[in-house]
Amino acid sequence: MTRFDDLTLASTVHNNPEICAAMLRSFETHVGCVSEVIVLDDGSASPVSIPPLTSPVRFIRIESALGFCKASDRALREVRTDYALLVDADVLFEPGDFAGGFAEFKQNNWAWVNFRQIDFEGCPQGSFEAKLMPPWIFAAGNQVFTWWQKRQPKPKPTRDQRIADVEVAHSSCALVKMHAFRAVGGFDLWYWQCQSDVDLSLRLRARGYGVGVNLGYTVRHHGAGGKSGDVSRVLDLYRARLHLYETTHPVSRFYLRPMLFARHVAELIWFGLIAPIKKDARLTTRVKLVKGVWHGYN
């Protein structure tokens, strides 16, 4: 079994211990063992048990849920090695050259690198944003975003490398250079879940660190792309993205909320018109978005 003595695997769990256990077993089966595994239980309703592993395990219990951002920040701050692998509980590791990508990560200026991802059915999923979409694209909606995204160049590593530079790497399965993480102050704890990894990516790049995606190794991720029909998750996405843009693109404060309001109203009218024919849960969500946009979706 391959040993990674300078690497710590860190993960958070919240009412999904079986999924987390499968992730940990898949890592030791297909990748190897690490200096330490840190599992932070973020307020699960029932006791969490960790399967026997070759790697030593440190379990941290938080009684009242912190949310993904604060829990992940806490887990990473417990890391004692130079490098960490922050992993969502619903990731499964595959056979492949993880070690080669990790060696490349250490040899260069990379500080935050995700991997190529597929879902459990084998369909490609997003684990990065090669270029962060402009605020007006976000406000215009998914159709305009799809049109814009198709016109963006695909990330490509330099010759004989497997890690490609991107503007944003998501946190679902990310290698972390710990001195860089600490140098920028870790996650911004203003965020609950959505966009915390986008914010961290941008701050790392602003300090001269590399953010990338390893295209030479693939993981399976059940929640790839942040898909969720939960209303609170949708509101968190809009709240966080609005905050991100108004912080990093100050000019957007003059046009982003009016554009979002106009779009939400148009969507509300559309879903209202089709409601007698087809019930759609998005109608309720749009009501909340229209009511919340001028208050930052709070």
How would you characterize this protein structure?
The protein is 38% helix and 23% strand. The protein has 298 residues and is of the alpha/beta class. The protein has two domains: 3-222, Spore Coat Polysaccharide Biosynthesis Protein SpsA, Chain A, CATH 3.90.550.10; 231-295, no CATH class. Strands 1, 2, 3, 4, 5, 6, 7, 9, 11 and 12 form a ten-stranded mixed sheet that branches. A two-stranded antiparallel ribbon has the order 8-10. The protein is globular, with a radius of gyration of 20 Å. The N and C termini lie far apart (49 Å).
Topology overview:
Layout lengths: L2 E11 L3 H14 L2 E10 L14 E6 L5 H10 L5 E5 L3 E3 L4 H10 L2 E9 L5 E2 L2 E2 L5 H6 L1 H9 L12 E3 L2 E2 L3 E5 H6 L12 H11 L3 E12 L9 H18 L7 H19 L7 H11 L6
Parallel strand pairs: 1-2, 1-4, 2-3, 6-12
Antiparallel strand pairs: 4-11, 5-12, 6-7, 6-11, 8-10, 9-12
Helix pairs in contact: 9-10
Quote the beta fraction.
15-25%
Overall pLDDT score:
94
Shape, per Cα inertia axes = globular
| Uncertain stretches of 5 or more adjacent residues | none
What pattern of helices and strands is seen along the backbone? EHEEHEEHEEEHHEEEHHEHHH
- Tally of alpha and pi helices: 10
**Number of structurally distinct domains:** 2
Instruction: Tell me the major beta sheet.
Output: 10 strands, mixed
Count of strand segments: 12
CATH homologous superfamily assignment of the largest domain: Spore Coat Polysaccharide Biosynthesis Protein SpsA, Chain A
Question: Gyration radius, to the nearest Å?
Answer: 20 Å
Query: How far apart are the first and last residues' alpha carbons, in Å?
Result: 49 Å
